[in-house]
C-alpha cells in the first residue's frame, strides 16, 4: 500500500490562487498544536507571533528591515532556480558583498570623503557578491563541478574570511579587543528612508529589484531563456541559448543581489563589520524564494511573512519562554504546507492498495 | 495454447462508453472497443482523433470523464500505470519516456519497480533480444541512441513483464521498413503466444498486413470497426478523414540554382562513448531542390543534424558553408541569421518545450526576429505568429494558445515544421518530417517542403521513410555508419541500390549487416 500522485487534467485558477492561503491557515493550526503540546496557549502565541508585531509601529518597521535582505537575496536566487541552477551559497555572497563594500567604509573612515563613498560602497558590495557567485558558476561551466557543493562550501570560506578580518587586520584598535571594526562614518551609512524611522534604503532596493525582475522574467528574452533552460534544456540548446553564458549570468546576478543585501545590512543596519552579520538570511532566502514560488511579487510577500516569524519568534521567546528554534520549525512547516498545497493543486493523491511492482 | 479461445470466453478487455473531456473539447466521446485474447487490434484515426488519449486511459495515465473498463469480463478501475502493469498491460508511448543520461539497462530497471535488479535486467535483456531479435546494448547511454533504438528499449521493457495486452502507440513511425518488418514478426509471435496487441499507426499498409480488426476514430468517436484486409488503404483513409487523400503536386520542374549548403569533408568524433562518428561527409544542396538523406536509424543522422544545425560545432569553419559563408564553427543562432532553419527529430523537448504555450514556443527559433525588440518579447506578435502558423499548417489545437504538450503528436509536428517554413528560410534542414503524422497531414507537410524548394530554398530532408524520399527528393544520398554515399539525382536511384547502401554493402562489398 502506498500513495501516488496523479496529475489533474484541469487546474482551476481559483484553487491555484487560494492554495497559499489555505497552506497558511493549516501551518498555523499545526504550529498551534505544537505550542499546545508544549503547554502554552495557542491563542496567546498567535497574539504574540502575529497580531502584536502587526499592530505595533516599531515591529512593523522591524519587519521591513528584516524582510529587506531576504527579499533581495531570494529575488537573486529566483534567477538561478528558474534555470535549474542550485546556488545554495547566497550566504557567502552576502558576506563577501559586505566585506568588499565594508573595505571601502573602513578605508575612508575618519577622512573627509564625501557623498561618493556610499554609492561606491554599494557598487563594491554588488561586485563582491557577484564575483564570489561566479566562482561556482565558473567551476561548473569549465570543469563540470556540481554547483550545490561548491557554492555551499564557499559559504564557510567567506564566513571564516570575515572572521579573520574583524579579529585581525580590521579590528577596531579602540574596541576593547572586541572582534569588530570601527563604526562606519555617516558618509558610509545607508540612511533611513524616513528621518526618524529605522527602515533604510535597502528596502527601496528590494522593491526596485522586485519590479525590475518582474519585467525581466515576464517580458524579456533573457527571462524566457531562463525559463526554457529550466523547463526544456535541450530545446534551450536548440534555441541557441548558450548554457554556460546563462549559468554565469544568473550566478552573477544572484551573487550581486546577495552582495547588495550584505552591504546594505552592514551599512544601514549594523553599522560595522563583526564576525556574524546574518542570522542565516542567505539560507532562509532559499525558503523565501520557494515560498514565493519564484515569482518576484510572491517573494516580496514571502520575505515579509518569514520576517514576521523571526520577529514573532523573538517576542515569543521573551514573553512566552518559547524556544527560538520553534521559529525555524515554523518556517519549515510553512514551506512544506505551501509546497504541498501547490502539489495538491496540480496533482491528486491516490491510495494504491494492490501489490506494487508487478 | 492457441488463441482460438477468443470466440468462447469473454474478451480480454472491453471499453464501454469511454469519454474524456478537456475543457470544451471532447477528446474521446463514448468509445466502445473490445479486444480478444491473442488479437492484434488496430486503432486508427487522423491526428488529434483521440487515439493516444484512449490508450492512456486504458493504461491508467489519465482518468476518463465517463465510461468503464472490463478486464476479462470484470469491471476494473485502472488508476495508474502500476495498476495497469499489475493487470498485465504494457505500453509503448508515442513520445519516449526514457532518461537520456542513463544506460539502457538502468532505464529498464528504473521503470520496473520491485525486484528487478540491474543484473536480472541484463540477463533477461539478452534473453529477450535473442528470442525476438531485438538487439540492444545494455550499457549504452540512451542519449547516444537513435529514435529507433530508443523505441526498442520501450518495447523490450514491456516484454520483460510478460504482458497480456501490449499497447503500441505509433511504433513504426521511426522505424525503417526492415526494422518494421522485424517488429511485425515479433508481434505475430507474441500474438501466437496469446498476447493481445492494440496497435496505433498511420501506416495503413502495415495495419492491413498485421491486423484482422481495426477500430477507426474520428473526432473522438468510433466511426467504424472493420476488417482492414477487406478494404483498401485508400478506403480506410477516407473513413478516417471523411474524404480522400490526394497526391503531392510538383508542377514546377526542379531547377537547381545557386549553392546554399556545402558540407566539405566534415568529420566529427562521436558525442560520448557510443555515438556515431561522422566521417568525411560531403554534401551540396542548391536553391530550388530537395535533398534527401536516407538511412537506417542510428547511422549518424542525429549527429549529422546536430552538425548542420550548429548544436555541435565542427573543427574547421569551412567544413560547412551556408549561403557561401563558412560557418562550421558558428552556433545555431548564427546559422539562423544566415537564413537557415532546422527541425529536429524529437518534437517534444527538443523542438518544443512541452509546458510552454505555442506562442512562447515561437521564441525558440524566432528569438531574434519579429517576436522581440531589443531584448523584449513582443507578446502580441508572438501570439499572432503562433496563430498564423496554426492557420497555415492546419494545426488542430484544443484551445487558442495551448501548451505544446496538449497538442496531439501529429499536430505538434505540423506546428514545429510550420514554425520554420513560415520564416521562408533559404535553407531548411529537417529530420524525420512526418514522424507520426496522418496521411493527410503528411501530405500537407511534404507539399510544404516541396513548395518551399520550388520557391527557391534548399531543403534537406533526413528520413527513414523511403517512400517519402522518393516522393519529395530531387537528389538523394544514403548515410551508413557515419558515411554519406555520393549524392545522385533521385531518378538514378533504385530501391535496391538504396537498400544496398543502407546496409553498407555497396561501400564495403558484403561487409557489416544492419539489424
Ligand atoms: N492535456 C490536454 N489538454 C487539453 N487537450 C488535450 C490534452 N491532451 C490531448 N488533448 C487534445 O485531445 C485531442 C486528442 O489528442 P490525442 O493525443 O489523443 O490524438 P491522437 O489521435 O493520438 O493524434 P496523433 O495521431 O496526432 O498522435 C487533441 O485535440 C488534443 O489537442
Ligand atoms: Mg497520438
Automatic annotation (TrEMBL), chain A:
The chain crosses the membrane at residues 21-43, 63-81, 93-110, 116-135, 147-166, 199-217, 238-261, 273-292, 299-320, 326-345. PANTHER family: ABC TRANSPORTER, PERMEASE PROTEIN, GUANOSINE ABC TRANSPORTER PERMEASE PROTEIN NUPP. It comes from Microvirga makkahensis. CDD domains: TM_PBP1_transp_TpRbsC_like. One of its GO terms (molecular function) is transmembrane transporter activity. Keywords: Cell membrane, Membrane, Transmembrane, Transmembrane helix. It holds the Pfam family BPD_transp_2. It is a multi-pass membrane protein. This is ABC transporter permease. GO terms for cellular component: plasma membrane. It is found in: Cell membrane.
Amino acid at each position: 500500500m502506498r500513495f501516488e500522485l496523479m496529475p489533474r487534467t484541469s487546474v482551476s485558477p481559483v484553487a491555484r490562487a487560494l492554495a497559499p492561503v489555505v497552506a497558511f491557515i493549516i501551518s498555523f493550526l499545526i504550529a498551534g498544536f505544537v505550542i499546545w503540546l508544549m503547554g502554552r496557549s495557542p491563542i496567546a502565541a498567535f497574539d504574540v507571533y502575529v497580531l502584536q508585531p502587526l499592530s505595533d509601529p516599531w515591529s512593523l518597521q522591524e519587519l521591513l528591515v528584516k524582510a529587506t535582505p531576504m527579499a533581495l537575496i531570494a529575488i537573486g536566487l529566483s534567477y538561478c532556480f528558474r534555470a535549474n541552477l542550485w546556488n545554495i551559497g547566497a550566504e557567502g555572497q552576502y558576506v563577501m558583498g559586505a566585506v568588499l563594500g565594508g573595505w571601502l567604509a573602513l578605508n575612508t573612515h575618519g577622512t573627509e570623503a564625501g557623498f561618493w563613498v556610499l554609492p561606491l560602497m554599494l557598487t563594491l558590495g554588488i561586485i563582491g557578491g557577484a564575483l564570489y557567485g561566479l566562482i561556482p558558476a565558473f567551476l561548473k561551466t569549465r570543469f563540470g563541478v556540481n554547483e550545490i557543493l561548491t557554492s555551499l562550501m564557499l559559504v564557510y570560506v567567506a564566513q571564516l574570511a570575515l572572521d579573520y578580518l574583524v579579529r585581525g587586520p580590521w579590528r577596531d584598535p579602540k574596541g576593547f579587543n572586541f572582534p569588530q571594526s570601527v563604526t562606519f562614518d555617516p558618509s558610509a551609512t545607508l540612511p533611513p528612508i524616513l528621518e526618524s524611522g529605522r527602515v533604510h534604503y535597502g528596502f527601496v532596493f528590494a522593491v526596485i529589484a522586485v519590479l525590475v525582475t518582474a519585467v525581466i522574467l515576464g517580458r524579456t528574452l533573457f527571462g524566457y531563456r531562463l525559463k526554457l533552460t529550466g523547463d526544456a534544456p535541450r530545446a534551450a540548446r536548440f534555441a541557441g541559448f548558450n548554457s554556460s553564458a546563462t549559468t554565469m549570468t544568473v550566478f552573477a546576478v544572484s551573487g550581486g543581489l546577495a552582495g547588495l543585501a550584505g552591504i546594505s545590512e552592514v551599512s544601514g543596519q549594523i553599522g560595522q563589520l563583526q564576525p556574524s552579520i546574518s542570522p542565516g538570511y542567505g539560507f532562509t532566502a532559499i525558503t523565501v524564494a520557494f515560498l514565493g514560488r519564484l515569482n518576484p511579487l510572491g517573494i516580496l510577500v514571502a520575505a515579509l511573512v518569514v520576517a514576521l516569524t523571526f520577529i514573532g519568534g523573538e517576542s515569543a521567546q521573551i514573553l512566552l519562554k518559547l524556544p527560538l528554534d520553534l521559529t525555524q520549525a515554523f518556517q519549515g512547516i510553512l514551506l512544506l504546507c505551501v509546497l504541498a498545497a501547490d502539489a495538491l493543486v496540480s496533482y491528486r493523491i491516490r491510495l494504491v492498495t494492490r501489490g506494487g511492482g508487478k | 495454447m492457441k488463441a482460438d479461445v477468443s470466440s468462447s470466453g469473454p474478451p480480454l478487455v472491453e471499453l464501454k462508453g469511454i469519454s474524456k473531456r478537456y475543457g470544451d473539447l471532447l477528446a474521446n466521446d463514448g468509445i466502445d472497443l473490445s479486444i480478444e485474447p491473442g488479437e492484434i487490434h488496430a486503432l486508427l484515426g487522423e491526428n488529434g482523433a483521440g487515439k493516444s488519449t484512449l490508450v492512456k486511459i486504458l493504461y491508467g495515465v489519465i482518468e476518463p470523464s465517463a465510461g468503464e473498463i472490463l478486464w476479462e469480463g470484470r469491471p476494473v478501475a485502472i488508476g495508474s500505470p502500476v495498476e495497469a502493469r499489475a493487470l498485465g498491460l504494457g505500453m509503448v508511448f508515442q513520445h519516449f519516456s526514457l532518461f537520456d543520461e542513463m544506460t539502457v539497462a538502468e532505464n529498464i530497471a528504473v521503470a520496473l519497480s520491485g525486484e528487478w535488479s540491474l543484473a536480472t535486467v541484463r540477463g533477461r535483456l539478452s534473453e529477450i533480444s535473442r528470442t525476438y531479435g531485438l538487439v540492444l546494448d545494455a550499457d549504452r547511454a540512451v542519449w547516444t541512441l537513435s529514435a529507433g533504438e530508443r523505441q526498442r528499449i520501450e518495447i523490450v521493457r514491456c516484454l520483460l513483464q510478460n504482458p497480456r495486452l501490449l499497447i503500441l502507440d505509433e511504433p513504426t513511425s521511426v522505424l525503417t521498413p526492415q526494422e518494421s518488418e522485424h517488429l511485425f514478426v515479433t508481434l505475430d509471435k507474441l500474438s501466437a503466444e496469446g498476447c493481445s496487441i492494440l496497435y496505433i499507426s498511420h501506416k495503413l499498409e502495415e495495419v492491413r498486413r498485421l491486423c484482422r480488426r481495426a477500430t477507426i476514430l474520428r473526432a473522438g468517436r468510433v466511426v467504424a470497426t472493420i476488417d482492414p484486409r477487406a478494404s483498401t488503404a485508400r478506403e480506410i483513409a477516407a473513413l478516417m478523414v471523411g474524404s480522400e487523400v490526394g497526391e503531392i503536386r510538383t508542377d514546377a520542374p526542379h531547377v537547381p540554382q545557386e549553392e546554399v549548403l556545402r558540407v566539405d569533408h566534415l568529420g566529427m568524433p562521436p558525442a560520448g562513448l557510443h555515438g556515431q562518428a561522422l566521417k568525411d561527409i560531403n554534401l551540396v544542396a542548391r536553391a530550388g531542390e530537395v535533398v534527401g538523406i536516407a538511412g537506417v536509424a542510428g547511422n549518424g543522422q542525429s549527429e549529422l543534424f546536430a552538425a548542420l544545425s550548429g548544436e555541435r560545432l565542427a573543427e574547421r569553419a569551412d567544413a560547412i558553408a551556408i549561403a557561401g559563408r563558412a560557418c562550421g564553427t558558428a552556433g545555431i543562432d548564427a546559422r539562423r541569421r544566415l537564413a537557415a532553419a532546422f527541425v529536429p527529430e524529437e518534437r517534444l523537448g527538443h523542438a518544443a518545450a512541452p509546458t510552454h504555450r505555442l506562442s512562447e514556443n515561437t521564441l525558440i527559433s524566432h528569438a531574434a526576429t519579429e517576436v522581440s525588440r531589443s531584448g523584449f518579447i513582443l507578446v502580441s506578435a508572438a501570439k499572432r505568429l503562433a496563430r498564423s502558423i496554426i492557420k497555415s499548417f492546419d494545426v488542430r489545437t484544443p484551445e487558442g494558445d495551448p501548451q505544446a504538450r496538449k497538442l496531439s503528436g501529429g499536430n505538434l509536428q505540423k506546428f514545429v515544421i510550420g514554425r520554420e517554413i513560415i520564416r521562408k528560410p533559404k535553407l531548411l534542414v529537417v529530420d524525420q518530417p512526418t514522424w507520426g503524422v496522418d496521411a493527410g497531414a503528411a501530405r500537407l507537410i511534404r507539399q510544404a517542403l516541396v513548395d518551399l524548394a520550388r520557391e527557391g530554398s534548399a531543403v534537406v530532408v533526413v528520413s527513414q521513410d523511403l517512400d517519402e524520399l522518393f516522393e519529395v527528393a530531387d537528389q538523394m544520398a544514403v548515410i551508413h555508419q557515419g558515411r554519406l554515399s555520393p549524392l545522385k539525382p533521385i531518378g538514378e536511384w533504385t530501391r535496391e541500390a538504396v537498400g544496398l547502401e543502407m546496409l553498407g554493402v555497396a561501400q564495403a562489398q558484403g561487409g557489416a549487416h544492419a539489424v
